[in-house]
Amino acid sequence: GHGVDGHHVSQFVTEYIISKIINHFSISSLQDTNQIYKVLTMFNYQIIKNIFSETDKYLLIQRQFDTYTSGTTCVLILQLGNKIICANTGDSRAILVYSQNDVYNEYNQLKNTNIFPLSLDSKPDLPLEKNRIMKCGGEVHKGKNRNGKFVGPMRVYAKGNDYPGLAMSRSLGDFGGKEYGIICEPSFVECGLDESCKYIVLCSDGVWDFM
């Protein structure tokens, strides 16, 4: 989460989205993972998109914590048999680490590993994202420091103003920026799993950008 109440937003989203997927009427009675996969991927992942949208709408009407200047990313992994679906809103990130041979170094770490990105960062300077933001009356540029110089990552601003200053083009919450092109709809990546797949890592940009 980000913003003053970002930790509350992220905690709520974590519990709400998982509950809605597991208990969704179209899959709650299904046992076969292939059937669940077919239902969830139907019509370009429409069920998952609807759940993200429903979550965002519920955040808007709740009154327990701020969602105007606070919000959260959401990177979601669904493993269905040997298939992985990753739904991502924001700039947290998921990767799959795989290796064709189990060779370890002296620290018991896998050697010769490869990485497959399971998510796409929702950055405001990406052409499609920037185009949507500009059509909604927003603009994309770096923030200014005290000396008036542009520094840091690209951010979303209302045209001619210094808010909301969000460094991503998609998020849950952050309703102060929704009219300027911030959306909650996730992007999707799929992949298959086999014996070469070792583990999946999901982290926020606090890890990817700084560690």
Description:
This protein has 211 residues and is an alpha+beta fold. It has helices at 6-22, 33-61, 127-135, 205-208; strands at residues 71-72, 74-80, 83-89, 93-98, 114-117, 138-144, 150-158, 164-166, 172-173, 187-192, 197-203. The protein is built from 4 helices and 11 strands; from the N terminus they run H-H-E-E-E-E-E-H-E-E-E-E-E-E-H. Strands 2-3-10 form a 3-stranded antiparallel sheet. Strands 5-4-11 form a 3-stranded antiparallel sheet. Helix 1 packs antiparallel against helix 2. The chain is globular, with a radius of gyration of 19 Å. The two termini are 18 Å apart.
In short:
By secondary structure, the protein is α+β, with helices and mostly antiparallel strands. Helices cover 28% and strands 28% of the residues. It starts with 5 loop residues before the first helix and ends with a helix.
Map the helices and strands.
Elements: H1 6-22, H2 33-61, E1 71-72, E2 74-80, E3 83-89, E4 93-98, E5 114-117, H3 127-135, E6 138-144, E7 150-158, E8 164-166, E9 172-173, E10 187-192, E11 197-203, H4 205-208
Antiparallel strand pairs: 1-9, 2-3, 3-10, 4-5, 4-11, 6-7, 7-8
Helix pairs in contact: 1-2
